[in-house]
Each structure stands twice: as structure tokens, then as C-alpha cells.
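Thought: the user wants the 3D structure for the chain below. I'll pass the sequence to the structure tool as-is, report back what it returns, then summarize two notable features.
Action: structure_tool
Action Input:
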Amino acid sequence: MSDASTWREVLADTTATLGDEREARYLCEHAAGLDAASFAAALHESVTQRMAMHLQTMLRRRLSGEPLQYVMGRWAFRHLDLLVDPRVLIPRSETEVVAQVAIDAVRAAGPGCVAADLGTGSGAIGLSIAFELPPGAATVWLTDISADALDVARANLAGIGRAGAGVRVARGDWYAALPASLRGALHVVVANPPYIAVGDPDVDDAVARHEPHAALFAGADGLGALRAIVIGAREWLRPGGTLVVEIGHRQADAVREMCAAAGLRDVEVRRDLAGCDRVVTARA
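Observation:
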């Protein structure tokens, strides 16, 4: 890269190096500190030495196999721009569908709704509820057993400003993180728990190497965390309250049976944008 390199030239070089124009543009935009529209208007501008060094550092990390989202340290989820790093899972598009189902459930519950996002990770689902609904529409609890994950969630909570006034953060294992006063009082419980079986050969190598295993794997059958959440829902939800959980695309029948065995009713399975079974909802 010469001293007179423009972003147009650097983008072309980065695309050739990565073999992926979309990723190259993301990295260049991030190094430039510009959004997509502003970057397009700045393609003729010269790249500063500081920006070039930042880009080269990110490029080396990406070429080593580190996920793009961790390299950038941020990723978009619905209307949020979230801090993400190896302490938390990378937010995925299928979880945006889970968030929408939860938002609809909170909206339907009406004023005074109390919701819990169990195993919140980056805070993606719970913070989307707080951000997308009117101020004061709900109290949203973000819980996680990982102190590191909650540090990320707190940083993202700060990032949504006043919209986060009704958000509370607590550390603990699923429902154990919540105050006892909420037992039988929650209107909505939502979770994207670990649901991959240990040793599953279909797990992408980059996922297994870089993302937190505690947030990915749940026992020999991948259902351990889902069992705990479903069984606890009957006790923690108020009558008529709604459970929303993300599942693996082959787990719908098993989770449907869990809900029935736990005494939950109106069990439904919903699909993600790819047409895969992804969300189970049920009522107390």
C-alpha cells in the first residue's frame, strides 16, 4: 500500500486478498470509521497510515480464521450495533426471528410486562426488546452464568442509552439468577441456550475453535439447557405467560414433548427465514 493509496485501491487489494468483496468492504468501512453510504462517497480519499495499520491488523486476524465479527469487534443485530468478542456468541440472523417472537409476546402482555432473557450473552434479544418497544413498556432481566458475557451485555446496555432504563442485569444459572419475588410473576421468558450435542460432527470448525463452548454445547444430546429452561418455566411464568426458546433445527419434536411434560400448553414451532424449525413457544 503506497502513501497515496485511495480507499478504492485498498478495497480492491483487500478483496483480492480475502477473495470476498463483502467481507473486504466491511473491514475497509470499519478501518475508515464510516458507514456504508459514507464509505462509498469516500472511495476517492487517501487512506491514512493509522487506518491502513488497523486494516492490516484486522486482515491478518481474518486470514488466520478468526470470525469476521470478532475481528471487527461488533455486529449488527436487528436495530442494534452490538459489541461482540470471544466472550459471547456471534449474533445470528435466525436469532433475530426469536427476538421478534419475544417482542411480540411482550407487546401482547401489555403495560407492566416483566420479561427475562436467560443466558443473554451479548444481550441481543433482551436489549432488542427494550430498544424496540416504547420506554417503560417492560422490565427486562438479562441473566447469564458467565461474568464475562455479562460484561459484554452491560457494555451493549450502555450503548442503547435511555431505552435501557428498564433493563436489569443478574448473574446466575438460568432462573437462579432472578430474584425470588419474580417466581410465578414473569410474563415472558426467552432464551437462546446452548443446544448443540457434544461431538456433533456438523459444527463448523471456526465456530468450535473461536466461540465459547459453554454457549454452544449442552450435553450428549444437546438438550440439557433446554430441559432446565422448559421445566423451570411452569414455576417462573405467571398464568398465561409465554416461553420462547431457540432450538436446533432437528429438535422440535423433543422440545414439544418437553413442554407437554412440563404442563405447558399452546405449544407451537416456528421456522426461521431459511425454513428450518427454530423457535418453540408455549404458555403456562
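Final Answer: Structure generated. The longest strand covers residues 237-246. The chain has two domains: 7-64, 75-283.
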